[in-house]
């Protein structure tokens, strides 16, 4: 210690730095993290529900084979059916039903839902699916399809269509399936 002329004492100043460690933990605010997790979960839930809702209009809905046909179905004719298969990347096979649809009625068709019934060797229903009919947009470099609403079927029009099946039951007899027009939207 040193004394100054005014009677004050100054303690010696150390040149060594001493770091003080705090035994107290820093308090963390968890509210932003909780809000972020809640938002992510809410978005995921909305996406899952919207995907499920989208599927209820397509292949997940099973109409009975006695379901009534749409009244406008008599104005639509299917012809030139062909079937083909291709392998997918997962090692399975995809089955295609191609054909032509003609609008012999007086209204423009904007959507068509068909029921496709595959039968087994005993002529019992092996597989029953309902799906929207898709029109073939282009053939090259690959077959690309689009909804009927993208290229409405006007009176007198005839267009190619394709139905796609990711899986067909193994007990299917290999014959062409029965295609029924269950629902038609017109304008």
Provide a brief overview of the structure.
By secondary structure, this protein is mainly beta. The chain is 13% helix and 39% strand. Mean pLDDT is 83; it is low at 55-59.
Strand order of the largest sheet: 3-4-9-7-8
Q: The CATH topology of the domain at 71-186, please? A: Immunoglobulin-like
| Count of helix runs | 1
Helix content: 10-25%
Mean pLDDT comes to: 83
CATH class of the domain at 71-186: Mainly Beta
The secondary-structure element order is EEHEEEEEEEE
What ranges have pLDDT less than 50 throughout 5 or more consecutive residues? 55-59
Count of extended strands: 10
Straight-line N-to-C gap: 101 Å
What key phrases describe this protein's structure?
mainly beta, Immunoglobulin-like, 187 residues, three-stranded antiparallel beta sheet, five-stranded antiparallel beta sheet, 13% helix
């Amino acid at each position: 210690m040193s004394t100054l002329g005014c009677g004050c004492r100054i303690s010696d100043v150390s040149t060594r730095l001493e770091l003080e460690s705090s035994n107290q933990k820093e308090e963390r605010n968890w509210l932003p993290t909780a809000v972020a997790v809640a938002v992510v979960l809410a978005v995921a839930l909305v996406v899952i529900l919207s995907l499920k809702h989208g599927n209820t209009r397509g292949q997940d809905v099973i109409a009975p084979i006695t379901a009534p046909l749409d009244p406008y179905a008599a104005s639509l004719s299917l012809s030139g059916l062909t079937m083909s298969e291709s392998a997918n990347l997962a090692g399975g096979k995809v089955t295609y039903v191609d054909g032509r649809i003609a609008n012999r009625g007086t209204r423009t068709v904007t959507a068509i839902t068909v029921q496709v019934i595959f039968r087994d060797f005993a002529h019992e229903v092996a597989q029953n699916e309902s799906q929207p009919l898709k029109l073939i947009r282009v053939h090259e470099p690959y077959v690309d399809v689009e909804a009927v609403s993208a290229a409405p079927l006007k009176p007198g029009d005839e267009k190619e269509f394709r139905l796609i099946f990711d899986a067909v039951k193994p007990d299917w007899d290999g014959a062409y399936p029965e295609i029924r027009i269950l629902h038609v939207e017109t304008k």
